[in-house]
Amino acid sequence: MPNIKSAKKRVDVIESKNLQNRMIRSQVSTAIKKINAAIEANDMALADKLLPEVIATIDKAVAKSVIHKNCAAHKKSTVQTRINDVKSGKLVITKKLDNKTIAAQKAKAAKEAREAVRAEAKAKADAKAAEKAALDPKAKKKTAKKEDKPTKAEKVKTEKPAKETKTKTAKPKEEKVETEAPPVEESVSE
Question: Does the domain spanning 5-88 belong to CATH 1.10.760.10?
Answer without folding.
Answer: no
